Amino acid sequence: MPSCDDSGLCGTDSGTADSTSGSRTVTVPDAAALARLETDPAALERRLRRALDDGEIVTWFQPQVRLDDRSLVGFEALVRWHHPEFGLLMPARFIRVAERRGIAAELDLFGLEQGVGLLQQLDGDAAGPRPPLHLSANITPDFAAARGFADRVSDIVARAGMPPERITLEITERGPIANWRTAWRNVRRLRRAGFRIALDDFGAGYSSLGLLKELPVDEIKVDRLFLRRGAPEDIAILTAILQIARTLKLHVLAEGVENAEQEQRLRALGCEMVQGFRYGRPMPIEEVPEFVARWPAGAPFMQKADVAMPEPAPGIGDGL
Asked: How far apart, in whole angstroms, are the C-alpha atoms of residue 24 and residue 22?
């Protein structure tokens, strides 16, 4: 796994695992050079478009788990940029430019297409009866409001012969949606077709309660910040969010679950689903089939030492 700093920059793994210590040699990329690229949005846009053409954009996947029985629900598709010079870049490094320059939609569709293909592969690999796994795919707000959004999403899923009921579209709330009327129409159309709609980063974004009112939502994903400290005010807010969800009959998934204490807290509060390093870190697509085949034996919570894992740096874990 690449190492990451707190700004979404990951090192490139340039060595092999040590047979005794399991350590790896990690080459730290030139953060200053990347910062120079970031200060030139036009150059970053050109480089990002080329990355899409050159196959540098990749999709990693993180497991999502039902809390009551720890069964595997599915995976969230997480788009990354495997930059030949800077290593693996988190979306925090490029998503703003992608949104402003009209590239975010292509990244969203790429992640969705990769994820649908993964579900097809996992269905074919299943050795026996198994509940169908689901996919969660991120959708940027402006794309949700774009003309043709519903058609493009539906076409990808239909071409794969995948039931839309197995796809959750996570609308992130980094800012206000410019065209609410079009977004509402697009989302409502997809929901009628069977897609599930989730509101991502609930409680930490632009206008969570307003979005619950405006959009036809099936699920909310509680932002990790309410789990990180475990302070009384955080627990109180988390309790209130779960009560709102129950009242509105919404599914709830808590992000950023890293240790047994957080899991127990969520279980006591009646949270339905979870995601975080406790159940599995984001992984390349080629590692997912083995992970599924070994579940739950290979999950971190099944290891001998069930202790709190190091807290992930902001912006690099199991979110975008």
From this structure: 7
**296 three-state secondary structure:** coil
pLDDT of residue 155: 97
Alpha-carbon distance 176 to 37, whole Å? 27
Reply yes or no: is the peptide bond before residue 296 cis, omega within 30 of 0: yes
CATH number, domain with residue 166: 3.20.20.450
Report the sign of the C-alpha dihedral through residues 8, 12, 15, 16, in that order.
Answer: positive
| Bridging pattern class, strands 26-27 and 87-89 | unpaired
Q: CA–CA distance from 132 to each of 181, 270, 319 (Å)? A: 34, 24, 23
Catalytic residue numbers, as ranges: 255
Task: Please report whether residue 270 resides in a domain.
Answer: yes
Q: Containing domain of residue 150, as a range?
A: 44-302
C-alpha span between 163 and 148 (Å, rounded)? 20
Residue with token string 């109180």: 236
CA distance 77 to 274: 15
The pLDDT, as a whole number, for residue 206 is: 58
Domain assignment present for residue 320? The answer is no
- Mind listing the pLDDT tens digit for each residue in 158-186? 999 999 999 999 987 665 566 777 888 89
Q: How far is CA 299 from CA 139, 149, 207, 293, in A?
A: 28, 36, 35, 11
Q: What are phi and psi of 67, to 5 degrees?
A: -75, -35
Question: Distances from the Cα of 196 to the Cαs of 120, 158, 297, in angstroms?
Answer: 18, 15, 29
Q: State the Cα angle at 154 between 148 and 159, rounded to 5°.
A: 125
